[in-house]
From TrEMBL:
Species this chain originates from: Myroides guanonis
SUPFAM superfamilies: Urease metallochaperone UreE, C-terminal domain, Urease metallochaperone UreE, N-terminal domain
InterPro entries per UniProt: UreE_N_sf
GO biological process: protein-containing complex assembly; urea metabolic process
GO molecular function term, any single one: nickel cation binding
Domain of life: Bacteria
The protein's name: Urease accessory protein
């Protein structure tokens, strides 16, 4: 493959359905998982073009195929996130209400049963003042499969 040519991805196969031998990685940010068209250079320098089908999301671990060959694997980059951990349901509901008024996505950390939102400096200061030691910053992947969805999503 020539690194200067555009490689059009003709199939995206979920990590559960595919074994991809490629070591190349296409890095995406958490907020790019719903983008319809992505044109980006992979870690190894190949220019890839992906166009998703309707209602498809890009997921961490999806393999990208072109002409029957696995070209790369999608990796969702870790980012700084605001995390709240508590068993207090009143506090969690207050947190969700506070975040909901800002129209930010909320993610569940399935390993610790905590809630995560993408980092915002002003928001972090406000949440820290309101929820004190229950709020921490963490570098983590915000994956679409862990996103809380409303009924209209």
């Amino acid at each position: 493959m020539n690194p200067l040519e555009i490689i059009k991805i003709d199939a995206v196969i979920s990590v559960e359905q595919s074994v991809c031998g490629s070591t190349d990685i296409l890095e995406l940010e958490w907020f790019e998982t719903n983008k319809r068209l992505i044109r980006r250079t992979s870690v190894q320098g190949f220019f890839l073009e992906l166009e998703k089908q309707q209602r498809q999301k890009w997921n961490d671990g999806d393999s990208l195929w072109s002409n029957g060959s696995c070209i790369a694997v999608i990796r969702i980059k870790p980012c700084l996130a605001i995390k709240i951990c508590t068993d207090d349901l009143q506090m969690l509901s207050d947190f969700c209400y506070y975040i909901g008024n800002r129209h930010l996505p909320v993610f569940i950390d399935s390993e610790s049963n905590c809630l995560l939102v993408p980092y915002d400096g002003n928001l972090f200061d406000q949440l820290k003042a309101k929820f004190q030691n229950f709020i921490v910053l963490e570098e983590t992947q915000l994956l679409s499969e862990n996103k809380l969805l409303n009924k209209n999503s």
